[in-house]
Amino acid sequence: MLFEQYNLAGIELKNRIVRSATYEKRADVDGFITDALIEFYKELAKGGVGLIITGNALVHISGRSVPQMICIHNDYYIDKLKRLTEAVHKLGGKIVIQLVHGGRQCFPALLGGLQPIAPSEVYDPSTKITPREMANEEIWEIIEAFGDAARRAMYAGFDGVQIHGAHGYLISEFLSPHTNRRDDYWGGDEERRFHFLEEVYKAMRKEVGDNYPILIKMNADDFIEGGLIPEESLRIAKGLEEMGIDAIEISGGMYESAPKTAQPNILNTEQEAYFRENSRLFKKELNIPIILVGGIRSKSVAEDILQKGDADLISISRPLIREPDLPNKFKEGKEKADCISCNGCMRFQKLNVVKCTQINK
Ligand SMILES: Cc1cc2nc3c(=O)[nH]c(=O)nc-3n(C[C@H](O)[C@H](O)[C@H](O)COP(=O)(O)O)c2cc1C
Asked: pLDDT by residue (tens digit) across 81-106?
């Protein structure tokens, strides 16, 4: 099934392999697309992946979490983003852009010294940062920024957008009872914690119309005491389905609960697909496409997930950093990715670009 075509909300995919959003550190210092970034994505497109989801792209300057990330918070970015989508399309690839605000997981050094913003002032022991609580007007400003970014993505020729609602960034912070301690329209109970994402989705839909694909990556589980758990995230997913979201990518974890998102040392098939139970639960209860990410390394595991109906699409991040042509290799008979999940690629600060440190010393 892995190499069967798949129609994802109108995007014709040549197979069921997705490149999960992966920060590249290849935009210029102002967030513009560079030649290096285009070359990087051309390699992925040539490598046979069905759908590329870009690294997280910034919707508002108050949410910059990493240096040299792709930016989309101003119309000035559209022209160069267009060069990227054209290059991928020319090679027969499909490309969706992931939209993010980093929330409390931003560092003041990347915000001109300013304190990061979040739903509530909850200290993060992993970054040693206490964010500033967002004012109501600020919340609406960010919602509008997501809508504007979606419109720019459409003008730039992306096949769709993915909301980054996972991993402890701003949207995930609003959803999580651990990071959202507000007692107003934006927090206080489950329904109110959902309001921010609901408004973000509505703002985006208003800008792009009914037929443009809007996907989301979200946590099934925050893996933190008092955080989001699968029962609640499933209810959120149902709410999103009702509103018209086109697909959900299942992930988990936040900086504070690391390394749950990108788990290290996946060396046998039992350790693979570590969010599979969650995607099975979501698949059972929802009718929209479910994308599973997290530790998928073997073709047999990927096939088994699809055969058993635990997900509709297989999403991969780290192995494609090492082997951008892994889908083609799978098709030609390779069984297992070379990636050993050492997480050397995640030492962003030390690397000039995100790369596999096993083969690029
Ligand atoms: C270097 C690196 C950068 C990442 N950047 C993003 C990102 O921009 N957005 C996102 O949603 N996840 C990001 N992730 C998480 C991956 O998309 C994925 O969820 C995680 O690595 C587990 O999948 P894997 O086992 O196939 O690597 C990143 C992971 C790595 C290793």
From this structure: 999 999 999 999 999 999 999 999 99
Query: Best mutation site among 23, 59, 99, 266 for ligand 1, i.e. most ligand atoms within 8 A of its Cβ?
Result: 23
- Report the distance separating Cα 122 and Cα 104, nearest Å: 9
CB of 219 closer than 6 A to ligand 1? no
Q: pTM of the prediction?
A: 0.98
Return phi, psi of residue 314, to 5°.
-105, 125
User: What are the boundaries of each domain within the chain?
Assistant: 6-350
Q: Is 185 a catalytic residue?
A: no
Could you tell me if 327 and 319 are in contact, meaning their C-beta atoms sit under 8 angstroms apart?
A: no
Identified catalytic residue from 169, 212, 255, 274 = 169
**CA triplet 327, 333, 335: central angle to 5 degrees?**
75
Q: Which of 18, 20, 291 to mutate to test the pocket of ligand 1 (most atoms within 8 A of CB)?
A: 20
CATH topology of domain 6-350: TIM Barrel (3.20.20)
